[in-house]
Design a protein that fits this description.
The complex is a heterotrimer of chains A (308), B (300) and C (517). Chain A is mainly alpha-helical and 308 residues long. Chain A contains 14 helices and no strands. The longest helix of chain A has 38 residues. The termini of chain A are close together. Chain B has 300 residues and is mostly helical. Chain B has 14 helices and no strands. In chain B, helix 9 runs antiparallel to helix 12. By secondary structure, chain C is α+β, with helices and mostly antiparallel strands. Chain C has three domains: 165 residues, D-Maltodextrin-Binding Protein, domain 2 (3-Layer(aba) Sandwich), CATH 3.40.190; 112 residues, Dipeptide-binding Protein, domain 1; 206 residues, Dipeptide-binding Protein, Domain 3 (Dipeptide-binding Protein, domain 3), CATH 3.10.105. In chain C, strand 2 and strand 3 form a beta hairpin. The chains are: A mainly alpha (308), B mainly alpha (300), C alpha+beta (517). At the A-C interface, helix 3, helix 4, helix 6, helix 7 and helix 8 of A face helix 1, helix 8 and helix 14 of C.
């Protein structure tokens, strides 16, 4: 098991190298000079040249990249161009907000999607089935920022239930988490529904039913647990997309997370900041996937034996 | 409704005549039984027809581009069924023409990523070994970067134009298709008919294109419908971040995004573009889900 | 069939639900649900929460040149001089008086008893250390420190600044944020002024939660007895989305919106719980034409374009009516303002100018670079206007980074740009051809150059004002960059907050604000 985890973590190294290389060179090839952005429209060429040299941006790209990577190996994420602060400070102070929001959103989406999926499966091909699947689809069909604004207008302004912005209290989590979680509900609900349908038809369920076990017990005790594995996979995959989807949510709700930071950094051509965020995203994405894989083991002992 | 579904059914029957157990025919038949999927298909066809007829419905220059400041921000009325935007342009005309941009953009982006991803996935799956390993690791790298952000980086590098938007939206979806196709290729690669083809000396490329790919169409079609839906939302997201289609070209995501500052007093400006986006994505999802169910024999 | 009917009705039901949601939001306007800020009056007495669009890059005086950064700087720092928010004239801040000897030596007497936030007292050596350090270490500051040849301490409270030749703009430069005074001891010890911005200003820095807020607390020892800060705690919250800022104000979550979305102005104005203060800013927007490119090197073409642009359409269509049309090459608000020699919208005249030029307007292609939504909207309207005289406008949308690199390298035909210096001299200096080094394609006119140089070295105010007027008339006749409008800044805030004086330069003196008892 430990061997397996170590192996998976080692496999992360080439991915990080690849990701940083890709982002570094694409962004460096983008028109636009971070120095210009700092100094503004009125700056003279001398001022620009001086600051460029101060920031080490006059060196060849490859040298800059290698320097960055040497720093990265030592755990140094570099200095942000736009704020002149260490990237690590900025990234680590803001990443927890995004992570927390993503986790709450996942909980929201699971809490909504699994019941919908189960109901749909149990009442397969009825109106209830159709309604459930339809509701699940609405989240995916509405562009996030629109949904977010509507939620804000209704629940913050009209009803005054939740804060409009920021991350000051637990109430602040509700609207952004709903907006985000709603987006991912569809695929979780669908997966739950199909895997439930599949399990319900298994022989052991039929056996249980024929023994006279009540329907709700069959669903809760026998079918649900076995139908859980595909649902976990989908949820795991979605945490990745949540991290990415948080960009819009963070902008609308003024959430102090890393997604907004990264959007600003891209516009500012702040390469170290963008790289720092990307590296964190990548690591987090991989760890989540790893956790999901490990979680299978707990849900399904047959898979666990494969790790050893 | 009956009329539109007819071709699908008759085609399915036609196919069935020749190939007794064709997967395609079976699928279509099962699809036709799924009313939600049929509804999705009908809506989609209607939207495509709308985009094709856009020029007959509204002249681009006089209705879509020409401004009329005196008429700005008017709520829906007989004259302007969906109201007017902040430049006094008819919103319906812009939505009708916008369907062209939106659909074309997302179809093109998905087609591009399907072509590239499909090709990479096919050769990775077919040749295996180091090539497979290398290509799949590259795909892992792309997959590790959140799609919206990667698209932003690419648009920043290439500049904001409709073509670059297509490229940006497609690159981040390449891994999805590469994986699907690779998986499909792996399942059929060692089957007997492939070996037979190899035995009679067919070249790799023609084996892949003539024998391997047609047999893994099913999951590809499903992915394609679902990815088109995702691309439409991504375009809207990019518009929100200021990197969408350039004015005055109408595009649903851009209409929704620019309308958002008017959401309080002129909510119709976001409601209608949003509604069209929703309907399109819903229909694509209904269709995609229907196809998936139809392709999954376990759920029969 | 039955089932599909059910599906259709479902679809309709779902749409209805969403429709109701949207409807609620539009209906919410009249009821003004969030009309009364939820907090009680007492809670407000000691704090003010300000919502602003963007986060400052730095709290230092030297690592940025942005409006929001300066807004932070004026809380924690002072310069020798300051710009009066109402008259836009310089007045004494840390300095008490000044005299000029032989046109280049400026002697400043400092106020006594001024304390930095760390308790140490301000002396001449701090002024010397600051200006010397900034001059030596901050490339971006040269526009404001470049003319200073040397700074010397005369005695504990007297500083002598020597300029490089007679220079009339020194007082304005000293009021600029690069020249805000930091304590010498901290400069020498390598203090990080970003995390520890110690100055003499009315507010002291408390904390900065990145991405969320910055908090300041009032400086009880503020030197200016006439305007000691009243509100104890000042919190700036960063809310990027305009609609969200307004909703936050209406819901009582913030007390003050620094940048109000123009679409929300009328709603807030009609709500008695809020005050909307408006001021025409000196931010002057224009269509920057690359005068190195034919045919825009021809004054007749520029005049034709200038006369074809309908400023009212731009203001009503792109800016919701909230801007002030301007045709002069300087913004309204400067004492020196004049629109003598400038021309406005006149299609007939535009056509005449095109005839005078003699070319075929359909051969002119005019790609306009735009770096944000508002610029795109403006360009969209100009596209329609210029089509009237046969000029074809293409809208090129790009992000700010690309935009800056193209305009600064001269790789552009036209761009929408604004200038907003706080005084006419600095503004008019930008028409001097030396600016071409940083902004290729700008004006290159020897007569204007000579006049600008003369004004710069004229220290006598009356004589300088006359020269500035001459430059304005001259430049208005050349139409280097058709002027469009001046932005109107809106600040919306809780009606119980008093003492808010929005300034044409874009800043608000928060230490002069107080809660109504």
């Amino acid at each position: 098991m430990i061997k397996y985890v170590v192996k998976r973590l080692l496999a992360l190294i080439p991915v990080i190298i690849g990701v940083t290389m890709l982002v570094f060179f694409i962004l460096k090839s983008a028109p636009g000079d971070p120095v210009r952005l700092i100094l503004g429209e009125q700056a003279t060429p001398e001022q620009v040249a001086e600051l460029t040299e101060q920031m080490g941006l006059d060196q060849p790209l490859l040298v800059q990249y290698v320097k960055y990577m040497i720093g990265l190996v030592q755990g140094d994420l570099g200095i942000a161009y736009s704020t002149r602060r260490p990237v690590a400070d900025e990234v680590f102070s803001r990443f927890p907000y995004t992570l927390k929001l993503s986790l709450v959103a996942t909980v929201v989406s699971i809490a909504l999607a699994i019941p919908l999926g189960i109901i749909a499966a149990v009442k397969q091909n009825t109106v209830i089935d159709n309604v459930s699947m339809f509701v699940a689809l609405i989240g995916i069909s509405m562009p996030m920022f629109w949904l977010a604004l509507l939620l804000m207008l209704l629940f913050s302004l009209k009803l005054g239930w939740f804060p409009v912005s920021g991350a000051a209290s637990w109430q602040s989590y509700i609207l952004p988490a709903f907006a985000l979680g709603f987006m991912n509900m569809a695929s979780t609900a669908r997966t739950t529904r199909s895997s439930m349908l599949e399990t319900i038809r298994q022989d052991y369920i039929r056996t249980a039913r024929s023994k006279g076990v009540s329907n709700s017990v069959v669903i809760r005790k026998h079918a649900f647990k076995n139908a859980l594995i595909p649902t976990i996979t989908v949820c795991g995959l979605q945490i990745g997309s949540l991290l990415g989807g948080s960009v819009l949510c963070e902008t609308v709700f003024a959430w102090p997370g890393i997604g907004r930071l990264m959007v600003q950094a891209i516009s500012a051509r702040d390469v170290p900041m963008v790289l720092g965020c990307t590296v964190i995203f990548t690591i987090c994405f991989s760890i989540v996937n790893l956790l999901v894989d490990l979680l299978y083991g707990f849900v399904d002992p047959r898979i666990k034996s494969m790790y050893s | 409704m009956q009329n539109t579904t007819a071709p699908a059914v008759s085609r399915a029957e036609a196919v069935k005549k020749y190939k007794k157990t064709s997967q395609f025919g079976e699928t279509m038949k099962r699809m036709a039984r799924n009313k939600a999927a049929v509804l999705g298909l009908i809506i989609l066809v209607a939207l495509i027809l709308m985009s094709l007829c856009a020029d007959f419905l509204y002249d681009y220059d006089t209705y879509v581009v020409k401004q009329n400041i005196a008429d700005r921000l008017q709520w829906p009325s007989a004259q302007h069924p969906l109201g007017t935007d902040e430049f006094g342009r008819d919103l319906l005309a812009r939505i009708v023409h916008g369907s062209r941009t939106s659909l074309l953009l997302s179809f093109a982006a998905v087609a591009l990523s399907l072509a590239v991803g499909g090709f990479l996935g096919a050769i990775a799956g077919y040749y295996g070994k180091w090539l497979d390993n290398l290509l799949m690791r590259i795909m892992d790298v792309i997959l590790a970067i959140p799609m919206t952000l990667f698209a932003m980086v690419i648009v920043a590098a290439l500049g904001a134009s409709t073509l670059n938007l297509v490229i940006a939206l497609s690159v981040s979806q390449i891994p999805t298709f590469a994986r699907v196709v690779r998986g499909a290729v792996l399942t059929v690669k060692d089957s007997e008919y492939i070996e037979a083809a190899r035995a009679i000396g067919q070249r790799d490329l023609s084996i892949i294109s003539a024998h391997v790919l047609p047999n893994c169409m099913a999951p590809i079609i499903v992915q394609t419908t679902l990815r088109i839906a995702a691309t439409i939302t991504s375009t809207a997201s990019l518009s929100f971040l200021g990197l969408g289609v350039t004015a005055p070209t109408p595009e649903w995501g851009a209409l929704l995004s620019t309308g958002r500052t008017f959401i309080r007093d002129s909510s119709y400006l976001t409601f209608f573009p949003g509604l069209f986006i929703m309907i399109t994505i819903l229909s694509l999802n209904l269709l995609g889900d229907g196809l998936r169910d139809a392709l999954d024999p376990r759920l029969r | 069939m039955k089932k599909s009917k059910r599906l259709v009705s479902l679809l309709l039901a779902a749409m209805f639900t969403v429709g109701t949601l949207a409807g609620c939001s539009s209906g919410g306007t009249s009821s003004g649900a969030g009309g009364t800020p939820s907090g009680s009056g007492e809670a407000h007495a000691d704090s003010l929460v300000i919502a602003t669009q963007s986060e400052p890059a730095s709290l230092t005086t030297y690592d940025h040149d942005s409006l929001i950064g300066v807004s932070m700087n004026i809380l924690t720092y002072n310069g020798l001089m300051r710009i009066d928010q109402g008259t836009l004239k310089t007045e004494y801040d840390l300095a008490e008086s000044h005299t000029v000897e032989n046109d280049v030596d400026w002697i400043f007497k400092l106020k006594q008893g001024v304390k930095f936030h760390d308790g140490t007292e301000l002396h001449a050596e701090d002024v010397v250390a600051t200006i010397e350090w900034v001059k030596a270490n901050v490339p971006g500051s040269s526009g404001y420190t470049g003319k200073i040849a040397s700074v010397e301490e005369v005695d504990e409270y007297t500083v002598k600044i020597t300029t490089d030749g007679p220079y009339a703009g020194l007082l304005y430069d000293l009021g600029y944020h690069y020249n805000f005074i930091m304590p010498k001891a901290l400069i020498e010890s390598g203090n990080d002024f970003n995390t520890n911005p110690v100055g003499t200003g009315p507010y002291k820095f408390v904390e900065w939660s990145h991405g969320d807020h910055i908090t300041f607390t009032k400086n009880e020892d503020y030197f200016d007895e006439t305007c000691k800060p009243s509100i104890t705690e000042l919190t700036w919250r960063f809310i990027p989305e305009g609609t969200s800022r307004t909703i936050a104000l209406e819901a009582g979550e913030v007390d003050f919106v620094y940048e109000v979305e123009t679409t929300d102005v009328s709603r807030l104005q009609s709500n008695s719980a809020f005050t909307v203060a408006e001021v025409t800013s000196v931010e002057n927007w224009f269509l920057n034409l690359n005068k190195d490119l034919a045919p825009f090197d021809d004054v007749n073409v520029r005049k034709a374009i200038n006369c074809a642009i309908n400023r009212d359409n731009i203001i009503n269509g792109a800016l919701n009516g909230y801007a002030k049309a301007n045709i002069s090459c300087v913004p309204v608000g400067y004492a020196e303002y004049s629109d003598e020699g400038a021309e406005g919208y006149d299609l007939e005249k535009a056509k005449e100018y095109l005839t005078a030029w003699g070319g075929d307007p359909s051969t002119i292609s005019l790609p306009i670079l735009c770096s944000n939504d508002v610029k795109v909207r403006i360009a969209t309207i100009m596209q329609a206007d210029l089509a009237e005289i046969g000029i074809n406008v293409e809208i090129v949308s790009m992000d700010q980074a690309t935009y800056l690199s193209q305009t600064s390298s001269g790789d552009f035909t036209a761009a929408l740009t604004s200038w907003s210096p706080s005084n006419a001299l600095t503004y008019l200096q930008r028409y001097h051809s030396r600016r071409r080094a940083s902004n290729p394609g700008s004006l290159n006119d020897p007569e204007v150059d000579a006049l600008v140089e003369q004004a710069e070295s004229t220290i006598d105010e009356a004589a300088r004002t006359e020269l500035l007027h001459e430059i304005i008339v001259k430049v208005n006749g050349l139409v280097p960059q058709p002027t469009l409008y001046q932005s109107v800044n809106f600040r919306a805030f809780d009606a119980r907050l008093k003492g808010v004086v929005p300034s044409a330069t874009g800043y608000v003196d928060f230490h002069r604000c107080y809660w109504e008892a």
